[in-house]
Amino acid sequence: MPGTDMYVANENAEGHGEICFRGRNIFMGYYKDEKSTRGTLDENGFLHTGDLGYVDSDGFVYLTGRIKELIITAGGENVAPLLIESLLKQEMPQVLSNCMVVGDKRKFLGVLICLYTAKDKNDNPTEVLAPELVRFFSKNGIQVQTTQEAMNSVGVNQLIREAIERANIKTISRAQSVQGWRVLPTDFAIDTGELTATMKLRRKFVEKKYEEFVEDMYRSPLPSCLASPQHEKTVAALQAKL
Question: EC number(s) for this protein (predicted)?
């Protein structure tokens, strides 16, 4: 944009960092409030947006998340969860309504998964799967009607596993690979506290609410139905039908 300077602060090895702008059309400072201005602009007059992103070889700017949402793994790797969540949604658009990546101070990343479900009279999600999702599963040889059945279904979790593996191939580093997951009993919603009025994830609230799911996932990354002795035979039979 004419009259605007931009750079990426604190870049990592992949060129990702905080997007910063400077210009008369961006922010010149607070009127007669030098102290607040100094707290907003750096010494070179750049506004630090708090947005994470990178610039490609053609000069296009891509936003990948917010600094305040950044996950720092046990290995010290900085991970922007929004980018990974977007990849997961792209790999299972018929299945995944919402998801949230976790892994702060953990040895690996995990993801909490919400399936598409039917709504009640107040437009809040129920534990009954959406008709379209039931049909999708049925076409893949999987007979489930509720989130509880899906949570314990080898077929559902195998589809999720394959989608996660495809998404992991597209991540920029091993630290961004998802290694565990759990399907949640209901979708996220405003009324139940997981989403803000503007549909943003309340990450700390979600992680606290589903703390038992998170801890179980870090004890055993795979859902129990995939960790059973009969798992490999069941998966082979399922794949033969696809």
Answer: 6.2.1.3
Class for domain 5-68, per CATH? mainly beta
9-14's contacts with Cβ under 8 Å and 24+ in sequence apart are 9/46, 9/48, 11/54, 12/78, 14/54, 14/172, 14/173
Domain ranges of the chain: 5-68, 70-241
Buried b (16+ CB within 10 A) or exposed e, 144-166: bebbeebbebbbbbbbbbebbee
Q: What is the pTM of this model?
A: 0.76
- Per-residue model confidence as pLDDT tens digits over 119-158: 999 999 999 999 999 999 999 999 999 999 999 999 999 9
Give the whole-angstrom CA distance, residue 68 versus residue 72. 11
Task: Name the 3-class secondary structure at 236.
Answer: helix
Q: How far apart, in whole angstroms, are the C-alpha atoms of residue 190 and residue 172?
A: 32
Say if residues 182 and 112 touch (Cβ distance below 8 Å).
yes
Structure tokens at 109: 């990343």
